[in-house]
Amino acid sequence: MRFNDAPVAIVRQLVHNGFEAYIVGGAVRDMLLEKQPKDYDITTNATPEEVRRVFGRRKCRLIGKRFRLALVFWDGETYEVSTFRKEPNHIERRGRPTDKGEMIWNDNVFGTLEDDVRRRDFTANALYYDVNTDEIIDMINGMEDIKTRVVRCIGAPATRFMEDPVRMLRALKLVGQHQFTMRENIRKAIVEKAPHIQEASPARLFEELQKILNTDSALPIFEACQENGFLKYFCPMLSTLWETPGGELIRALLKQHDDCIDHEKNYFKEKSLPMSLMALPYLLSVIDMDEVSRHVNVVANQDACAKAIHTFFLTFNMPKEMLYDIRDIVMLLPEMAALHNLDKVRNNPVYPLAYEVFRLLTMANGWMADAFAELPLPNDVSQWQEQATREIEEDSLQTQQPKRPRRRRRPAKRKKTAAETPAQPTNDSLDSTDNE
Ligand code: ATP
Ligand code: MG
């Protein structure tokens, strides 16, 4: 097994200072699945304050309230170092006067490695890699479950999902992203407890949504959510649209986006892009495309679009800046489709994102490929995007001939240097209680 140098160095430094420390969770799981981990979680018996003493204030910052942990900065990357946790007891977990003590509002009770295993969500996520011995500590038969790709709860599923409803989404991510199958008791518990996802904080749900859209598997993850009756509580509008023609387009767009994340190293990192894709058919249905392209009732259409974004993402409490970015992207599309005001459109700060939405629409269902071919390239277009654009233009030329002579409005070409490429745009006992 070969992990990146930085997390290994962090673990070594903790061990050198007399602490126990391991790489844990998704990174170990991904490595066993022969996928390169994209983030590393480190766990230790050092308290967050002790971790800060080991790395110093410049290289370490403490964060979190519900889950306090240390961030360690190493080689330009940030690593989460969490202290072994124990499942809080009934009194410790009580968060609100009205709460029955099922939900974990505060997960800051430190414990031993054995305690830490039992508070994790699934067996596949509870493996600890010891960098000194090159061995995996597996107390819950997680290696076998990874081999057979089975989602198994640590503890009784219904109880675990009531403690933290986000765990249901994490199970569905294993299904969608890593092709795991759920044991029937977990599936039943999700169907039963899905409405409780709405008790998780909107900020946390928004973070989860962003993480899903950052993977190359957003479509299969949403599919798993929909198939198991979860999507209608997590993102109700998306679930309602799922089987309609609009939903079909959303799925095609998400597929394109997943492929881009998978293949393009420097693909956009702005989450307003995939969020625009998720809501696009709905947002385009509330604005009057014709009015927008002719600059009539612009404010009314802008307001209608902003309200529709708010409604679509109601469960997430989306930050205003992102809402306005999505609105601005969507509002550019009618003008781009009508090839109106292109000089002005091109100078809009969200034009590169709107251009990419248009490109994905063209790829997903051939939407207005001929109009797309007339659009000016954004100034900071990357080389792969330029290549992809050329391919769409060539396709459109072949399928649309004979055609009027083509007008290109490309900005003056300028070769990009590498530096200029865009910024990367518990608890019951184990296993046996799994059968409720
Ligand atoms: P990813 O590839 O998305 O990072 P991950 O499993 O590593 O997947 P993280 O959010 O990084 O997800 O969490 C790291 C580890 O912390 C998990 O593998 C799991 O052991 C534990 N964990 C995370 N969230 C929960 C939760 N809600 N309940 C119990 N354990 C959790
Ligand atoms: Mg992780």
Description of the molecule:
It is a single chain. With 436 residues, the protein is α+β, with helices and mostly antiparallel strands. The chain is 51% helix and 8% strand. The protein has helices at residues 5-16, 26-32, 48-55, 90-93, 113-119, 142-147, 157-163, 166-178, 184-193, 202-213, 218-227, 231-234, 236-241, 245-263, 272-286, 289-293, 298-312, 320-337, 342-346, 351-365, 369-374, 383-400, and strands at 21-24, 41-44, 60-63, 69-74, 77-83, 128-130, 135-137, 150-151, 181-182. The strands form two sheets. Strands 3-4-5-2-1-6-7 form a seven-stranded mixed β-sheet. It has a two-stranded parallel sheet with strand order 8-9. The protein starts with a helix and ends in a 36-residue tail after the last helix. 39% of the residues are buried. Bound molecules: adenosine-5'-triphosphate and magnesium ion.
Share of helix among residues? 40-55%
Structural class: alpha+beta
Span of the ends, CA to CA = 36 Å
Bound ions, cofactors and other small molecules, one mention each = adenosine-5'-triphosphate, magnesium ion
Low-confidence stretches: 401-436
Total of DSSP H or I helical runs spanning 4+ residues = 22
Instruction: Please give the largest β-sheet.
Output: 7 strands, mixed
Average pLDDT figure:
87
